[in-house]
Amino acid sequence: MTPLHPEPRRATEVARLELAKLPADTPLIRVIARACELATAAICVERVGVWLYVENNTALRCADLYERSKNEHSVGALLRVAEFPTYFASLSIRKAIPAEVALVDPCTAELAAAYMVPLGITSMLDAGIFVGAELVGVVCHEHVGPPREWTTEDRDFVGSIADLLALRIQAAQVAELRAALRTHSDRLAAVDKAEALEQMAAGLAHDFRNLLVVVMGNADLLTLRDDLAPDARALIAGVLAAADRGVDLANELLEFAKPEAAHPAVLNLADATEEFLPVLRATLGSAHHLNYQRPARIGQVLIDKGQFTRVLLNFVVNARDAQPAGGEIRISLASVRLSAGTDVPGSYDMLEVRDRGVGMDRETRRRAFEPFFTTKHHGTGVGLAVVRRVVDRAGGTVRIESEPGRGTAVQAFFPRVSVSTGETAEHRALPTES
Questions:
Q1: pTM of this prediction?
Q2: How far apart are CA 66 and CA 141, in angstroms?
Q3: Domain extent listing, the chain
Q4: Class level of CATH domain 11-180
Q5: Above 50 in pLDDT, residue 150?
Q6: At 9, phi and psi to the nearest 5?
Q7: CB neighbours of 42 closer than 8 A, spacing ≥ 6?
């Protein structure tokens, strides 16, 4: 006999059914976003994200991260295996990671300082997404507030969501996923090319510097002789000056090529920028005026603080050099949402540095981020190449807006891992070269 008043379905069951009933032709990225929304409500967590392996399984890229209280989605952040090895090892050997006190749980503790504490996360429930026997990603459920106990129902639910996503990925044969992440893969190819150039530059710079040290040593010995004619002494001084400049150049190339000990962590770009202003003003001197107003609201991104300030310093120094007679340099930060018509849609925190200098023509803009390309008389051409590498590794992108004689605006877009409360993101379309 059918009861007159059937028992209401549980929230987890309703969420599973809704996700399973999405039409087969629903884009994979939309399926992932909906899964995040449903999961936050079903088990009452603040944040749910789906992270998928990229770069030959050396990193997880955020396909979607939903914050329930803010009703906001973010995409694009990167977690690298080399930076959190214990967490990644746990994913590969366990179907699920129920970390009730995540700050000290052996599987998740190494994420504590860099990721969980800044975001207020206390408990995590992660489930691997397996296509066949291959781990292709993870669904992360992140609880904000006092630590909570994960029930058997919670654990079964997150496992079933991971399985449903695996079926969608398998059905699509990962084609949609590859298309959605193609832009990042294209940038990765450029990064690989840059890294090969870096290795070559390191070897050449090291040998070149050693040869110059020999030249300088012998030139110094010659200057000690009493029988040198004045014109010969002047020539030797010129040799020493040129060799000294060569050593500086070699050192700059080695700085570009050496591995960087980056430790990404959740960062508020407004705090980091404000703290770095004295260094920027000292670098500029009195001829240039630095204009910066802290934004009312800004999200948070996952990047090493030193790497971010390196990007900021490079932008500001380039703006200074574009205005040799002095002038205003404007730094601005904003939360932006790039429209779906762009090659990198999603929510970002944007750093922009704008000057009123000489500007760039189309060819210079096109080549600006190439390693060793420079328009400066005494430049190495590695500054913006380093910038692009840093931003790419954070999962973001860089752009230049400039015209000859009309100044330049250089922009770095960093994918967010958290949205500011009450934030209204600006909508932008990235410029394209015509």
A1: 0.76
A2: 10
A3: 11-180, 184-257, 265-428
A4: alpha beta
A5: yes
A6: -70, 150
A7: 11, 12, 14, 15, 157
